Amino acid sequence: MNQTVPFCASQDKGLVLVTGAAGFIGFHFALRLLREGRQVVGLDNLNDYYDVNLKEARLHQLRKHENFRFSRLDLQNREDMEKLFRDQPFDEVVHLAAQAGVRYSLTNPHAYVDSNLTGFLHILEGCRQGAVKHLVFASSSSVYGANTAMPFSVHHNVDHPVSLYAASKKANELMAHTYAHLFRIPCTGLRFFTVYGPWGRPDMALFLFTRSILEGRPIQVFNHGKMKRDFTYIDDIVEGMVRVLRNPAQPSAQWNGKAPDPGSSKAPYRIYNMGNHEPVELMDFINTLERHLGREALKEYLPLQPGDVPETYADTDDLKRDFGFAPTTSIEKGIGHFVTWYRNHYGV
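User: That's the sequence. What structure does it adopt?
Assistant: Structure tokens below.
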């Protein structure tokens, strides 16, 4: 049930809905908005896909700000979502809630349909009914799927996903474009590339590796270590998101239906890569973590997992051109910040 306490309508600054506010990226982004004086309603269902205590700890930080209100509800609950948008005059919506994880989608496919498809439809409908001025939503580098042309560009075709998670994110892009076209809702999709940093997700490599190394357990190294990832630090992601949110998507005057560009549209719709534009060998990533932990990892080498890809690499030219920004934080610096947070948070 929706537990949000509405803000007073006389507040000066527009209200922002951040879905997935107890999640990794949602927490950091909501915190940034609150520090800038924005009013934020954070939505999350606090499911047990990973440690709920970590989600509660993030929410504890957000609740310290008087401009934050929390709504615990499920995206797929149509009645509650309709009530949320009726009760709150959202100027902008930043949709980060989703069922995450490539490997989890192999065994729990219905969770992705419920959250990532049905839930996203309820977001789009809420934006339409509430005349929201800008919808920013999370996509993923996973949409590039079987594409091996590097670096990955938003102007590339992405019709060959290799996991249901990736397919659900591509579907989100198509759904958002449809609403941008039909109802002129400015929609901007962000394809995130392997985001990491303090307060990160326990199912992601950096968190898993850190915990296992400190506990003396082996880490699982897939594709026998022959992987490259465009690891992107959370502060860079948040900075890019803030710039995007301030600039609603506009129709492209150059778009041509006879040679359609996947990265733009005649509708108020855009897609951007949010990556570091600097792929890192998995073994270099592990070596950097070992240095910061002062311990060597026990390694279990395994084949490439179903639904996974051997390399990701973001073309960020459009992001630089339109917003004068691209992520730059090195893994040396980013991993160092994560290890410091992990030791402090868990007392190790």
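Residues 109-129 form the longest helix (21 residues).
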